[in-house]
Structure formats: C-alpha cells, structure tokens
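Ticket opened by: R.M.
Priority: normal
Category: complex prediction / small molecule

The reporter submitted a protein together with ribose-5-phosphate and asked that the result be attached to this ticket for the collaborator who will pick it up next week. Submitted input follows.
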Amino acid sequence: MSDTDLSAYKRSAALTALDYVKDGMVLGLGTGSTAKEFIMALGTKVAAGMKLRGVSTSRETATLADRSGIVLLDDNDHWPIDVAVDGADQVDPSFNLIKGGGGALLKEKIVAVSAKQFIVLIDYTKRVPFLGKTFPLPIEVISFGWRNTARAIEALTRSRVVLREQAGAPFRTESGNLIVDTHMARIDNPRELDAALHHIPGIVETGLFIDCADVLIVGTPQGVETYHATRP
Ligand SMILES: O=C[C@H](O)[C@H](O)[C@H](O)COP(=O)(O)O
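Result attached by the on-call engineer:
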C-alpha cells in the first residue's frame, strides 16, 4: 500500500471528524500527516464563516492552523479545549494508542488529556491486535544521563532501545528533549507498562496514550468507520 493510497483514507477520516466541530469551539490540534488533513479541512469551515480557536501541538501545526484561519491560544493561557483531534501510529482493540512517530507526543498528550473529547483519526492499517511489534514505542527523555535512562528502559522492557536521530544528529523535540524508540515484541499490558516507565527518572513522557481516545475514526477501503469508546 503506497503512502498516496493511505493519504486518501486519512483524508476521509479527517473529513468525517469535521462533524464534531461547531462554531466557537476551541480545538486541540494534533501533529502529523493525518492531523494536517484535518487542519486543512478546517480551513473550509473558517472560510464559510465559522469562528474557531485552537491549541497547537507543534510549530508545523501552528503554521497550518494559521493558514486555515484558526486563532491560536497562547501556550501560557488556560485552554478550555472542547475537542482535540490527532492521528496515531497504532491503535489496539481497547483504543489504547502509540503516538510520537513525529516526536510531538509530549505536547500531544497534554492537549489530548486537557480536551473534553479526544478524537483519533487513522487509516485502517494502524489498527493492531496488540501494541508494539510493528511500531517501536517512542519515549521522550531529558538529555541529562539519557544513556542511563535508556539502560533502565531496556532492563524494564527487555527490549532494544534506540536513540532517534535526524540528519545524523540526535533528534530534539520542541521541548529540547531526546526520543528513544523502544522495540518491543508485544505490549501485553500498556497501562502497567506506562505506569512502570513513569517511575524511571529521566523519562519525560511516553507515547502510550491509555484511556484517552473517546472517538476513533478509521478510513478504510470500504468507507469510514466511527467508534465511540465506552468507559467503566
Ligand atoms: O508525533 C507525532 C504524532 O503522534 C502523530 O500523530 C503520529 O505519529 C501519526 O502520524 P501520521 O498521521 O503522520 O501517520
């Protein structure tokens, strides 16, 4: 499946998400190619007269939002986010996610949990029976002592941990941290793993999004499928 084909499924999911957007809302705006489709589609709503404000999860998204006519709230404001919309790298049957393929996981998680409703958009290839295996878990760590932090992650997960690089240098997040990608064969209990990882000093945030997604919108060859999470 080529990226071009998949982008059509991402776009159809993004267009469906427009149904959740109402005039005057504050939106949490995710990062990545699927979120980009959504933000560009919002531009048509704004052009038609809808007033939207947003919180951006990356500089790239801020630029797109600006082009779409969405007024961005300041980083230091309190954000009354109605709906956050973002892509994901993997989604399991309980709607737990791996995110952070683009390195924006920290801001994305802050925005997702701040929203009254979090909508996840994916193409159908990202639904998996369990997290891991086909996508390494991104973990944001501070650079101070990162090798020791990586060792601790390896010891906990019994997996290979690889420092993410970009153009031959360590990749830096917008918060100035590093990302280590953790190649796990299978994540059996994402909630337990996330909790255990958060006990390791040096870890800023993980790409595990547990119990965050309220709505999952999936672009498939047969059309768009929408699922609503049920919480206990
Ligand atoms: O850090 C990046 C984000 O978590 C993205 O939302 C995720 O990687 C999915 O990206 P895309 O929509 O480009 O597949």
